[in-house]
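Let us work through a complete example step by step.
Step 1: write down the sequence.
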Amino acid sequence: MDRGRWRTAYVRLMCGTAVLAIGLSGWTLWEVWDRRHTVDEACAGLVPAGEVLALSGSGGEITAAEEIEPDKPFAQACVLRSAEAAEALGGSGTRQFFIARLATEPTGWTSEPVDDSFQDPLDPSNPWIRVPLVHQPVGGGITGEVTENGVAVRLPCPGVEHQGEEITAIRAAATLDLVAYREFGQDGQLRQADRDRLADIAVAAADNLAAELGCPDRLPEPPDGIPALNTEPVDPDEAAGTCAWYGAAGLHTGPANSSGWLPDQVLESRAGELVWQERCLLTVSGEARGATHLRHRDDPAYRRYREADEGRGLWWLSAESFFGDAAEQVATDPVHEERTVEHGTGGYDRQGNAWWATSVCDGEPAVHVLTAGYPYVHGAGRHLEPVLRAYVEDVAERRGCTDAVLPTADDFARAD
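Step 2: predict the structure and record it as tokens.
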């Protein structure tokens, strides 16, 4: 081939390569635009599309399973599906991986359920509760909580109306799908980058909705390096957060535990004043459980426990508090949500195995609930009055609560 023909061939090759590169570049740009457009359309432009598309599991095709309609009342959600999530779970097409929820207060929701006494929140063999549900506060001056798979925040919005109804606050939550996040997490937890990014998304969504509705305030930027959830119980004397009250009261070593039924381990989160719900989990170690079981195996007072026990379940308690709007509809049985707490009362829900107390914190209603796992409740129930009392007193001191009404001694005896 002479030099001229060679040069012509070379030029044609370069031109063809350039055209192909331009075509591929154009396709890539279109794909990026299409993915962002899908997020913007589904979430009504209220969440930052770039942050969503940087989350684990967001790769490949993105489709919307549920979309937000700004002209309708909130609560609403946008739900996104991805090809990467489907592939990670052994499927094809797309599968749910991300949910953003937006709501205004008063929420008008049916109820806020307490922990289910028939589930074991500390049982690592439970495929649905790999990380115990002791939510952490977001921190950084933000009213919000970090859950096992997402972040939720709250922004006050006084004096504003939407759809003809006065609202008082906005709630926004950004979560990875409960099943999908386990495929992309580390050691049963969200990756640090995902946890921080979900906080950014939740804050941005709350601020964007606030701008749409005309709310005067905005949230601060969330802190970097938001801590993961605690997953290992500790000795009560080591507790410094939402379970510090239990160790301080000395219930596990003092006269209140002369029967041996009270917990000797706790699982807590950092204590925060800017949360609408907090929780402390308490459990009895295997060694203490065995000793107590042997000690009372022939005691007729614990007949109901022995009849129900088949070596099943951990011995655990959950102490929870709900504040403000979250305290308006607290269901003491997560299955029968119509049974909600009446403010100004204390009592016992026999079917939910839960005792409740009420108070007023910073001028707003609060509900405090102590749930006992089944069948542990039938052994421990009569001994739990000082536990709930110590918990309510601690919350009252930390949150400035007054007018507390607690269950009676008879309410605790009814668990037997």
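Step 3: interpret the result. Residues 283 and 345 are 27 Å apart (CA to CA).
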